[in-house]
Amino acid sequence: xxxxxxxxxxxxxxxxxxxxxxxxxxxxxxxxxxxxxxxxxxxxxxxxxxxxxxxxxxxxxxxxxxxxxxxxxxxxxxxxxxxxxxxxxxxxxxxxxxxxxxxxxxxxxxxxxxxxxxxxxxxxxxxxxxxxxxxxxxxxxxxxxxxxxxxxxxxxxxxxxxxxxxxxxxxxxxxxxxxxxxxxxxxxxxxxxxxxxxxxxxxxxxxxxxxxxxxxxxxxxxxxxxxxxxxxxxxxxxxxxxxxxxxxxxxxxxxxxxxxxxxxxxxxxxxxxxxxxxxxxxxxxxxxxxxxxxxxxxxxxxxxxxxxxxxxxxxxxxxxxxxxxxxxxxxxxxxxxxxx
Amino acid sequence: xxxxxxxxxxxxxxxxxxxxxxxxxxxxxxxxxxxxxxxxxxxxxxxxxxxxxxxxxxxxxxxxxxxxxxxxxxxxxxxxxxxxxxxxxxxxxxxxxxxxxxxxxxxxxxxxxxxxxxxxxxxxxxxxxxxxxxxxxxxxxxxxxxxxxxxxxxxxxxxxxxxxxxxxxxxxxxxxxxxxxxxxxxxxxxxxxxxxxxxxxxxxxxxxxxxxxxxxxxxxxxxxxxxxxxxxxxxxxxxxxxxxxxxxxxxxxxxxxxxxxxxxxxxxxxxxxxxxxxxxxxxxxxxxxxxxxxxxxxxxxxxxxxxxxxxxxxxxxxxxxxxxxxxxxxxxxxxxxxxxxxxxxxxxxxxxxxxxxxxxxxxxxxxxxxxxxxxxxxxxxxxxxxxxxxxxxxxxxxxxxxxxxxxxxxx
Lengths: 340, 411
Fold this sequence. Notes:
The complex is a heterodimer of chains A (340) and B (411). Helix content of chain A is 45%, strand content 18%. By secondary structure, chain A is α/β, with parallel strands linked by helices. Chain A folds into two domains: 3-130 and 281-302, 3-Layer(aba) Sandwich (Rossmann fold), CATH 3.40.50.2300; 133-279 and 315-337, 3-Layer(aba) Sandwich (Rossmann fold). In chain A, β3 (87-90), α5 (95-107) and β4 form a beta-alpha-beta unit. In chain A, α3 (39-55) packs parallel to α11 (281-298). Chain A is elongated, with a radius of gyration of 22 Å. By secondary structure, chain B is mostly helical. Chain B has a single domain (45-61, 68-148, 204-404), classed as ABC transporter involved in vitamin B12 uptake, BtuC, CATH 1.10.3470. A two-stranded antiparallel ribbon of chain B has the order 1-2. In chain B, β3 and β4 (256-259) form a beta hairpin. The longest helix of chain B is centred in the C-terminal third of the chain and has 27 residues, at 302-328. The relative contact order of chain B is 0.19. The A-B interface holds A 37-39, 42, 65, 163-164, 192, 201-204, 206-211, 213-214, 217-219, 221-222, 235, 238-239, 241-242, 246, 263, 266-267, 270, 272, 340 and B 65-67, 71-72, 75, 78-79, 82, 217, 224, 229-231, 233-235, 248, 250, 257, 324, 327-330, 332-338, 375-376, 379-380, 382, 384-386, 388-389.
């Protein structure tokens, strides 16, 4: 069947049967993730598949071979255009590299929703469903400040960041944390431009355990008085904890993180991480599927959260030492919602 | 050519060129200090990295706070342990004029097997370690087979069939995959010993760069498949398989802090230094790298040498994996994404020539330490992290340029 006749057939089916699950039968929804291997995207795919089955839509998943594999993502988008998909949910490895392909998909009448990773400008896609990474950082920052109490004034802060490239997610979490903790962040779109004397420094970790350990060791050599550590994600936090254990400082330093992966939540329970901000990949994906089905039925596009240029899929603070003024859930509750 | 018999008088053509007047001579003009320096570096390949190491330690001691302390220097040794061992494996291969782009992937696969078997498979920890080391060896042999001529068909079919059958029989992947690998290894051993017909010899002889580029992807995919993308947590390893963390054990000496992993690394370098310099195998490795055809003509079985080098390198990568669990605490399939390039960096800065046949194993240790010293020193001096990448890039280019210059000595 040619593309045109397929499009025509699905358009007719949608027109004849205005609403209900029968109409959704024809809806093809594409999910294009950075990789199939990272637990975050595995969970995303599971969430999308489950919701699509419930709504009677068909999910087709594509991914790059590695993070940064834009070529495979472009091929995925092209296949979906050819298949006559109604909507594409995408976590772009490199949004800039996909702008043209996304534009072609939208010209073909496909609803494109960015999941997790925003495009620049945000209106390159129809909608963005993502974690508010700045808020995620701010929550752990506030929690750390409230936990330390008066000692906040004399705190020594280290940040274990992703890499030296100042990528948006990294910058948002870092600056959110510092602002939540009460540091003057200067330019909120840049890390490392602060001059607060409490800030010892930041180091790249590549978001992995080994990087977290080495970065922690290096910063600790710079200033052994470090007592609060922000980490880009939970693997980096686990690495930092190993370094602190080796220094005999495991009990004296507060580690906070972002993600909400199951190993990370277990580390909150075991006292490795003080608090972590949990994000919801499963929710992002299932809400994306719902939005596409709704668009196929009514032509209505999803709206952004007021005041933001994306739809906030929520973030929750996970800690077993709750503080006043920062709402949180316990690690036990979080273990039921964690991903990967 | 033999001398003419003494009894016979010189013939015409022999008299024209008298032995007294030189026909041709080596240029014996007096050497400049620069020439002598060039020859010195050519004769002692570790000299340049040692000088750079000492110089950088001196500079950072003066410019960075807290740099020159026993604790910080020992910390740098801890930090380069894993990359150092990977670099040792890589040095062996680069000495044969090859390259192995899959070293870090082999390491990750090996440590994921150790950790999953020991923690989730409930294997005794010594067995988990042994099987992990065997997996590294198997990966190395696979690479070796691709760059030489080997009977790989029975090995691959044994491994694949075992994994498929055991998975179908309901055994979890945690056990099926390593058992399949081990049986494949055994099939290979039987084939080499010649007791059973071992299938057709496959003449691959692929260029190492391309073959191991492919192997890198394959091993990375296998470790993600085997691990399901999941990290094995530090606390669970402590509980179920403490032996996996052996090389993370700390030893305090005079205010410095070492791990058993640091000692393992140094022991590996000393062992390799011995075999490369004092055994026939070591000479064969250099000979194959210097000129493979000449080595073949002088009776060295180059395929066997290459195969053994890749096998040893694979096993060393698995050993690096064991040390990595000690160093990192947990076992994550996403870690060491840049480990492979870091290892090559250490080898190159350590003065081993990418063209093969020239270099010294200890150079790689110094190369790894130079990178560690620069990272630590620049960080303690308060530089933005991007300058660490910049400095390492600069070091690589300087090292390769220096190698080219030194190589011209013999030309």
